[in-house]
Amino acid sequence: MIDEATEDGPLSFYDKVYSKISAHARHTSLYKKMKQSNSYKEYMQFKEDYQIAKENIRDELAFSQNPLIRITKDLLDKIPTKSETSSAFEILRRTDPDFDIFQLESEVEYLVKQIMGACFRDDSELISKLSSDTALGMLTSIIKTRKERVIFSK
């Protein structure tokens, strides 16, 4: 049962380990005590209420006669749900559970500012430290072209 494949393919290592630990944990007294606690019962009730609320909202939106909701729903139906970017972020989150898109955005913003500043200052050395391959070639080409224009305009 634990090593079985799902509809999405074979189980991941994480899923296999989680299944084995869960199966073992269910037989402990601590697990049984937790299942009988008021906090756990409240959590399960909240989870059930949440699911019902989600279904109610989904039904309300699906059958709404409000023109704004209908137009928005039609537009959302036309937008593809999977993009290359969302797939890349999904892979990043799978490989690094602590992945933070806002941290990535902050770091990219910092690097772009540094690279653009170096480009405007014609600092090829800093650009070669901060970029590689295609970006390095493009930026050094821009600097070279700008320097040639300065030489020819004199």
Molecular structure report:
This protein is an all-alpha fold. The chain has a domain of 55 residues. It is 77% helix and 0% strand. The protein contains 8 helices and no strands. The chain is elongated, with a radius of gyration of 27 Å. The model has no long low-confidence stretch (mean pLDDT 82).
Poorly predicted tracts of residues: none
Oligomeric nature of the chains: single chain
Strand fraction equals: under 5%
SS summary, helix count: 8
Number of strands: 0
> Helicity level, as a percent range?
over 70%
Shape: elongated
**H-E string:** HHHHHHHH
Instruction: Give the mean pLDDT.
Output: 82
Radius of gyration: 27 Å
Give a quick account of the main beta sheet: strands, pairing sense, barrel closure: none
Q: What distance lies between the first and last C-alpha atoms, to the nearest angstrom?
A: 78 Å
Question: Which descriptors would you attach to this protein?
Answer:
77% helix; 0% strand; 154 residues
Quick structural summary:
The chain is built from 8 helices and no strands.
Question: How do the helices and strands line up, and which of them pair or pack?
Answer:
Elements: H1 13-25, H2 29-36, H3 38-62, H4 67-78, H5 84-95, H6 101-120, H7 124-130, H8 133-153
Helix pairs in contact: 6-7, 7-8
